[in-house]
Write the structure tokens for this entry.
Amino acid sequence: MINHVWAVANKDLRLFFADKKAMIISFLVPIIIASFFSFVMVGNGGGGKQASKIPILAVNEDDDPLTATLIQKLGKSDMISVETVTREAATTAVKEGKSGVAVIFPKGFSAKAKSAIFAGDPATLEELYDPTKGTDKQVAQGALMQTLMQEISKEAMTGDSAKANLERALSFETDPVRKRAWKGMMDSWSSLDKSGGMSGGTGGGMRTPFEIKGQSMTAAKDDNADVNAGKAHVFGGMAMQGLLFFAINAAIGMLRDRKTGVWSRMKAAPVSSMALVLGNGLSTAIIAFIIFCGVMAFGVLALGIRVYGSWLGLGLVAICSSIMTAGYGLLIASLGKTEEQARGYSMIATLMMLMLGGAWFPTFLMPPFMQTISKIMPVRWSIDGVDAMVFRGAGLTSAVTPMVVTLGFAAGFSAIAIARMRKQ
Amino acid sequence: MVLVKDVVKSFGEVRAVNGISFEVAKGTCFGLLGPNGAGKSTAISMIVGTLKPDSGSVTIAGHVLSGDTDPARQKIGYVPQELALFEDLSSLQNLGFFGSLYNMSKPEIARKSAEVLAIVGLSDRATEPVKNFSGGMKRRLNIAIALVQGPELLVLDEPTVGVDPQSRNAIFDVLEKLKAQGMTLIYTSHYMEEVERMCDHILIVDHGKAIISGTLEQLLDTLDSRFRIRFEFLDEDTAVKAEAALNAKTLGKVFRKDSAVEVLPSKNAQAIVDSISYLQGANVMFEDMRVERGSLEEVFLASTGRSLRD
């Protein structure tokens, strides 16, 4: 039986390597998509520090010099870049999707904002945004809050304007006790300002009273850790995509063998059906493993992905994922009656598995119920295993769970496939 | 060599083979003739062991096939109706793969491959990918693959479908060579000319049932006449009148198809003169008239009342 299994597998391997174009496409498609997503999602070096700034438009309708200063300071933010335009130009650009966010500083904005620090209604800043660019909107709001708070509070709390603002606030107060307290504060403030205390070490104004020191929880401790993790995840996901798409092709090949009489001819020989099925499964697993290695090797050699965890663990996860691919291929072949039918529904199932399994984007970005569903996707476990071995720096023991689960899926798929084939 | 006894096979509600029995003597060619859907391929599948009969039995050289790995399968070479080969591989690689399924050693495969490629005239294309072959060459390789393990029985399921006349003759040459070497052949076709040329014994099947069987001579003897008269008329209306006129007399069996009428006369050459006379009497003019030798087509027509090519 082993000879027959190997004969079938060997024939499939010869066929795979004989069709050069199809073989190259099997490697090239996941590599191209993974490379594309790597550049788009994580850039090519330096992680977040090198990440491109989000461009926003600013409209200055205010004649207060502070507003011009605010716009200038905004442009120096790490997160955004600013271009000053007219209201019409900003409206058109956002409406046409050419810009994600535009901020309009209306007339009297700075004056109202300065006095509103102590009392009265807040000033209004108009924001135009493209609903498809929610991230741009959030980043722009963060930068605005930080920069405007610091600059406006500095202006409001120093020099003559500080005194005027405090006196204005005092005029709103009617309670004698609180009025005395405000007066005392005003005197202290004035003394502090005259001594230069309000424009001390940080240039004055209210600033964020804390800073966030981020630490990427990957095995890498260098600045490139985030990029390596991002690329590793993308390449792991796309390698799985390559495997599952190959499983579809392998299944279509089996169905074609049935249609062309090859299956009948093989069945006429003194060979057990199980040997024929196992031979197909073995060749699918071997080719899937080669594709997986090819895609990841490109990531390592061409894009500098580093494997911080166990190489052996990564290899075993790849083998188990390849066996799962073989089981999936057999399942498709057993469920499809025609090539077209099999290609149609397997494509839908595969895309769902890839999407919900986190091949296209990490599962933590999904709503909670989808994260739960993702656990029944074999792709999720394969990718978790790859992530653990490549950028989380995990050891061989962390590969055990993904391996066991993917092998479980392989066994399940194969059992259903064999039961279906026997019935047929 | 082969004994098929009362085999029945159904697919759901459809009874594809309904109690067919026949025997094939060693070294002879047995023809299964019938229209498309008659049950020929199903019968063949049961003989080569890819389908199990619902009832009845198939015995190959005194052995009832049991299970997928029965060594008796070694004795059967099977040529499916489709081109069951791998176009991206060479002839040698195809032969090597199928040979390995028959537990042949590598040297044995190499020796037999060279031998069978010589038989089918493809020795000079042994290492070339099959996708570069013509349709006829692929058909010949399809036969060669069935010969690689050295079978005693070669089962061919419509091996000339879609083949040009020149390639068809080349295939017949191969089969005649094999037959001369003492190989037993089972040949299915819906082309009566092929069966007439190749087969020593013929079984006509229709709707899954055996209709009639015997040698070509025996089958032709079942006809009322060894010849048929074919009249061509200007149009269908005239043919209808002619059919009525000829049917009114007891000439034999009369069939009309479009603007042609065929008469299978009783064993009486006088029928030729009589039929012309009857048409003249009915004032029906024909455009053309031919007298043709009787064939399996007439046997099938006479047995089932319909044409083999319907």
